[in-house]
Every structure is written in structure tokens, then in C-alpha cells.
Design a protein that fits this description.
single chain, mainly beta, ph1033 like fold, 1 helix, 10% helix
């Protein structure tokens, strides 16, 4: 997260349907539910807005990153991400 501006990369998504939605349908200004999917129980913890539309998740190209994708290349990165900013309620 960029602490100064309050935005964060929504990276590490490794589900094809979610990837397609992030890449093709999320637009700047869209509101999204921010949730913790690895928590028990899973829960929505806030609302955010998209501040940058889908682009290549470059983390998949880094062998030292937890989201490394060995099949990904610079020409075919496979995964996408967006940037979001928390909404103040």
C-alpha cells in the first residue's frame, strides 16, 4: 500500500474468472468490496474504489515473489491486477 495516498495494488489474484473481470470490466471509480479471503471466517472489511484499471501483474514474472507464475512471460503475463484506494466512511 502507498501510505501517503492510501492506494494499494490488488495483486496475487490467481482465478481466471476474477482475472478476466479485473482486466476487462473494472473501471476507474468503480466501487469494490475489500475483503480478507484467507481469514476465518472470510469477511468484507471495507469499501474501496478502483484508481487504476487492469494491467499486467508483474509480480508473476519475479521468481522470488510468492505469486510467481513459471508459465508467464513479459509478452504473456497471464495475470492482471488493478489499483484501489480505501473509501473513508
Amino acid at each position: 500500500m502507498n501510505e501517503a495516498d492510501g492506494w494499494a495494488e490488488w495483486d496475487g489474484v490467481r482465478n481466471y474468472q476474477a482475472r478476466n473481470f479485473m482486466r476487462d470490466d473494472m473501471k476507474v471509480g468503480d466501487q469494490i468490496l475489500f475483503y480478507h479471503s484467507n481469514a476465518k471466517p472470510m469477511a468484507v472489511v471495507g469499501i474501496a474504489s478502483v484508481v487504476r484499471e487492469g494491467y499486467n501483474d508483474f509480480h508473476g514474472l519475479d521468481p522470488d515473489d510468492q505469486h510467481y507464475e513459471p508459465k508467464a512471460t513479459a509478452d504473456n503475463p497471464i495475470w492482471s491486477m488493478v489499483e484501489s484506494k480505501a473509501n473513508v466512511l
